[in-house]
Amino acid sequence: MFTSYKAPHLGNFDQRLESLMGDAADNPYRDVFDFCNRYSHGEGSESVDVLDARVIHTQIRRCMEFFNFADAEHFERIAKPQK
Fold first, then answer.
1. Residue 81: DSSP 8-state
2. What pLDDT is recorded for position 73?
3. Of 12, 65, 72, 81, which residue is least crowded by CB atoms under 10 Å?
């Protein structure tokens, strides 16, 4: 959803996420790209280590950190507690 909001002009999820990542060599969130593209779908070929709950928790936290990195203003608005 976030990638569709940030890069609606691009055709698919991979392209939109790649555009938000920028230069892979300089981006500290390349692990988020890998997680979203390869490990988040549970297609059956993942190792047990990749699907371990602690690892998944860390990856979700990293996704949220990337979200904040990519659009801090938007992140702050949605992370703000609702009254």
1. P
2. 92
3. 81
Is a pLDDT exceeding 80 seen at residue 16?
yes
Q: How many CB atoms lie within 10 A of CB 82?
A: 4
Task: Report whether 39 contacts 23 (CB < 8 A).
Answer: no
Distance CA 74, CA 77 (A): 5
Q: How far apart are CA 38 and CA 34, in angstroms?
A: 6
d(CA 14, CA 33) in angstroms, rounded, equals 9
At 21-68, the pLDDT tens digits run 776 667 788 888 777 776 555 555 555 555 677 778 888 899 899 889
Q: What are phi and psi of 14, to 5 degrees?
A: -55, -45
Residues whose CB falls within 8 Å of the CB of residue 31, separated by 6 or more in sequence, listed in order: 59, 62
